[in-house]
Amino acid sequence: MVVVEKENCKGCGRCVAACPKKCLEIGERLNSMGIKSVEYKGEGCISCGICFYNCPEPYALRIEK
Amino acid sequence: MANIEQRGMYESFPRSGKNVSYTHYCPGCGHGIINKLIAEACADLGLQDRTIFVDPVGCGVFTYYYWDAAHISAAHGRASAAATGVSRARPDAVTIAYQGDGDLGAIGFNNAFQAAARGERFGCIFVNNSLYGMTGGQMAPTTLDGETTTTTPFGRDPALTGHPLHVCEVFAQLKAPVYIARVSVADTKRIMQAKQAIRKVFEIQRDRKGYALLEILAPCPTNFKMTPDKAAAFCINEMEAEFPLGVFRDSAGEGLAPREIPRAASCRELFAEKDAVPPAADDPSFEERRFKFAGYGGQGILSLGLCIAEAARLERRHTLWFPSYGPEQRGGSANCSVVVSGTPIGSPAVEHPDVLVCMNQPAYERFAGDVKKGGTIIVDATVPVVADPPEGVRLVRWPAVKMAEEFGVPKAANTMMLAALKKFKCTGLSDENLETALVASFKKKPALGEKNRELLRAAEARDHS
Questions:
Q1: What range defines the domain where residue A19 resides?
Q2: ipTM of the predicted structure?
Q3: Residue B158: which residues within 8 A CB-CB, separation 6 or more?
């Protein structure tokens, strides 16, 4: 399942657009950088890893199985 | 099942006094996606301890904070030149140059192109985002026709700036590269193709097969002035129309033998002869002598200087020979400086010679005033000495040209000058070594060597006082 490290997310939305199950979204809360980071909706993730490969940041998203 | 997470990168990135776990790239930047794929390929293939990355100038400059492997930073546009040196000096390394389209396509194009033409053994990963990113989105050689940048505010006008440069297509005209391809990181399907292609570049280097170029189309949302999803769409719809994806060359298959880098010959191998003289020995009691030989090209001025330097080498003195001449092979002014010393020599320049040999008038006029007090000037007797030499300098007028003609060997005027240097004890070197050096200078024409030894002795025996 997808794990988001909000402090490393820049909120670009590449993962939101790429997710085949549409289970990611840009949240409303700001991280410490003042960025609205991505959030997992809480259900639907199939651990495919597509979000990880679309994300430009190394440590913003990961899949834990 | 294994987790999907980043491999091959440092755990955190200490930069600008902070230690963070995010990159310097803008949100939605193609570089970030590519950086992750490169680190992953390097780690998955077990090549981190063998890989030397050559980092560019441009947005990709900070990759040394991210990829956990060895790095060298090159000057702008010079990553392919630096990678050439790295791969040749460290043939066991996996060398990867990472360059952008400003870096490779503009200022560094010739470096990259010539490296590809030579088939240097490194992989070049070339990120094309159609503009200069780091400096604020100016037009690059890869900017599309009509594309708006800060320096093409009304769109790139081909009438003014030509058309985009197709790097892969140009490089594909070369024989040497074993792999040339263009991929993109605009969407999931393309990212997976890029992942395979990046892996391939590493495998080619791991197997030492030759030069590989991988161009990667990358979105730059900041300078495109688009949201990340629109920037990715621009890559697919606009950039791919100009820069089609595909494999332009792939000859890196199983049958291709590794391209071994020939070991460079050492200086000793290049210059040492069979009867090699041991290196110069320090002898502080030997008084350093500085020589200047001057005349016009073709008189054997440079050879005469070399002969003195060779005699000094045979005598295990430190010596330097330093020629100076114009663009002409024959007929222009020529001179050379020779330093013979008992201790290591700092500079080959001779501003104030102990011995000056002049074979024509301009040479005398130019250098006679520089000779040290107590020094010697040997000037060809046909040269009219219009100015007296400096006080305390011995002047010898020696009919070198005339004597050579009398002996029937007009070209041997320089040997006649050597006879004067020997006769008047100007060199501080032994007669035997001077003669051996003279003969050795004709080693391609041995008959002439012995002939010149005879001429040398005959000239020395003549009385011209």
A1: 2-63
A2: 0.98
A3: B145
Q: How many domains does chain A have?
A: 1
What pLDDT, in 10s, does the model give residues B162-208? 999 999 999 999 999 999 999 999 999 999 999 999 999 999 999 99
Query: Cβ contacts of residue B440 below 8 Å, gap of 6+?
Result: B310, B449
Cβ distance of A52 and B31 shorter than 8 Å: no
Tell me which residue in B3, B36, B191 faces A65 most closely, judged by beta carbons.
B3
In this complex, is the C-beta atom of B189 within 8 Å of any C-beta atom belonging to chain A? Answer: no
From chain B, pick out residues whose CB is under 8 angstroms from the CB of A18: 187-188
Is A7 strand, coil or helix?
helix
Taking contacts as CB-CB distances below 8 angstroms, the residues of chain B near A9 are 22
The tally of CA atoms less than 13 A away on the side-chain side of residue B185 is 36
CATH number of the CATH domain containing A41: 3.30.70.20
| Domains defined along chain B, listed by start | 13-250 (3.40.50.970), 278-461 (3.40.920.10)
The model's pTM: 0.76
Contact indicator for B121, B87 with CB cutoff of 8 Å: yes
Mean pLDDT within B380-395: 88
Convert the pLDDT of each residue in B48-59 to its tens digit.
999 999 999 999
Using a CB-CB cut-off of 8 Å, the residues of chain B touching A4 are none
